[in-house]
Amino acid sequence: MTDVQVVRVFADPAGNFGNKLGVVLDGASIADPGDRQKLAAELGYPETIFFDDLERADFKIYTPAVELPFAGHPSVGAAWVLTRELGKAPAVLRPPAGEVPTWQEGDDVWVRGPLASAPPWWHERLDSPEAVDQLTGPLAPEQDATQLWAWENEQAGTVRVRVFGRRFGIPEDEACGSASMRLAAALGRRLTIHHGNGSLVLAQPGPPSYAEVGGRVVADSQLQS
Q1: Does 20 fall in a domain?
Q2: Are 186 and 163 in contact (CB under 8 A)?
Q3: Would you state the pLDDT for residue 225?
Q4: In sequence order, which residues have a C-beta less than 8 Å from that of residue 168 and are 6 or more positions away?
Q5: E runs forming strands in 86-196
Q6: What is the DSSP letter of 157?
Q7: 127 and 96 both lie in a single domain
Q8: pLDDT by residue (tens digit) across 187-217?
Q9: Cα 119 to the chain's mean position, in Å?
Q10: Contact at 8 Å (CB) between 217 and 117?
Q11: Counted domains in the chain
């Protein structure tokens, strides 16, 4: 049996909602990539991470369908988990994409990641937040990695977003960090993103070819699989 911690990343200020993340602290207990992929599919969370070295913040990221070199939601979650497990906040994370700086601002955990290593989300603007709310899926079946969004308040930088990721085994992603990073980079400004059913994501451009994403993380549950 494998111990799996579950956290919710990008919770709202009251600690509700957020995107579930499976966390295997003892990655050596499931060393085979095929077995890791199988567990990630069984759990069904948008991502599950496996730590190969806690002290070095070395971890791998799996969706229910594929392994990723970098993603925002699991990286923010990894930084929060490491702070709790080690008693100190890491300065950098080490997913397969390379070193990812991380820091904390109040209750929010932030990471800076390379856009070239993030999933290639397509993003399309809709006419209103209500149009986003009324979606039952992507605009067309072939849009299998799609972010659909609308301004709530353009001056304030608040947007309404939903993300559909069948390509990665995720029919709808409750709160997608990498898509939020791509949107902030494309718009060139800091965003407050009302995502999914009630999650809250913060994102902003970083240095050239990078973007930053942050939010609140809360503990959810622990299970054995």
Answers
A1: yes
A2: no
A3: 77
A4: 46, 63, 64, 65, 66, 68, 119, 145
A5: 92-93, 100-105, 108-114, 122-125, 146-153, 158-165, 170-173, 191-195
A6: T
A7: no
A8: 999 999 999 999 999 999 999 999 999 999 9
A9: 11
A10: no
A11: 2
In 3D space, the residue among 133, 134, 165 whose CA is nearest the CA of residue 147 turns out to be: 165
Q: Has residue 94 got a pLDDT over 80?
A: yes
- Regarding whether 134 and 74 lie in a shared domain, the answer is no
Would residue 137 count as lying in a domain?
Answer: yes
Smallest CA-to-CA distance from 115 within 50, 219, 206, 27 is with 206
| Residue in the block written with tokens 């955990």 | 109
**CATH code at 67?**
3.10.310.10
81 in the same domain as 15: yes
Tokens 């070395």 appear where?
A: 58
pLDDT tens across 28-70, in order?
999 999 999 999 999 999 999 999 999 999 999 999 999 999 9
Beta-carbon contacts of residue 121 (< 8 Å; ≥ 6 apart): 145, 146, 147, 163, 165, 176, 178, 179, 182
Strand partners, 67: 62
Tokens coding 101 = 């700086």
Residue 108 lies in a domain: no
Average pLDDT over residues 76-99: 97
Residue of 137, 132, 100, 129 lying closest to 116 (CA atoms)? 100
Query: Whole domain around residue 83: which residue ranges?
Result: 3-102
